[in-house]
């Protein structure tokens, strides 16, 4: 019997199966990384929108009145829908402000800011 160098067909198929399994795992990992990165980007921009609305609320006494208001803001060509809820906080002149921001077309809150503030003109 002569010894031949090389791989048998079965060895090549097993090596191909192992390589394919590893490649599918890496592709799946890459897909998840892209999704998580996009979600994180949405959250950062939504938080920035919420903070901008919070500053607007703090600097405009008319926006410190109890009630609910909403609107849309665009950050980096992405549209976000925000909702501001102002309620009395139990002490004279103290208000609680909640701001929730969602990407347009989504029900998922991506950014949220909540704070207490002494309303303008309060005793």
CATH class wording = Alpha Beta
Major sheet: arrangement of strands: 1-2-3-4
Q: Low-confidence stretches at least 5 residues in length (pLDDT < 50)? A: none
Helix content: 40-55%
Shape: rod-shaped
- CATH structural architecture: 2-Layer Sandwich
Distance between the termini: 104 Å
Extended strand count: 4
What structural class do you assign from the helix and strand content? alpha+beta
Spatial extent as radius of gyration: 27 Å
Number of structural units classed as domains: 1
SS field, number of helical segments: 1
CATH level 3 topology = Pantoate--beta-alanine Ligase, Chain: A,domain 2
SSE order, as H and E?
HEEEE
Share of β-strand residues = 25-35%
Explain what you see.
The chain is of the alpha+beta class and about 120 residues long. The chain has a single domain, classed as Pantoate--beta-alanine Ligase, Chain: A,domain 2 (2-Layer Sandwich), CATH 3.30.1300. The protein has one helix and four strands. Strands 1-2-3-4 form a four-stranded antiparallel beta sheet, with helices on one face. Strand 1 and strand 2 form a beta hairpin. The protein is rod-shaped and about 100 Å long. The mean pLDDT is about 90.
């Amino acid at each position: 019997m002569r010894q031949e160098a090389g791989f048998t067909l079965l060895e090549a198929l097993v090596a191909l199966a192992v390589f394919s399994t590893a490649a599918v795992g890496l592709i799946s990992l890459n897909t998840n990384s892209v999704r998580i990165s996009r979600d994180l980007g949405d959250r950062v921009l939504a938080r920035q929108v919420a903070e901008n609305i919070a500053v607007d609320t703090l600097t405009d006494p008319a926006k410190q009145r109890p009630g609910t208001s909403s609107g849309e803001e665009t950050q980096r060509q992405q549209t976000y829908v925000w909702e501001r809820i102002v309620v009395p906080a139990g002490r004279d002149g103290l208000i609680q402000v909640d701001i929730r921001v969602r990407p347009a077309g989504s029900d998922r809150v991506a950014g949220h800011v909540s704070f207490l503030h002494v309303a303008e003109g309060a005793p």
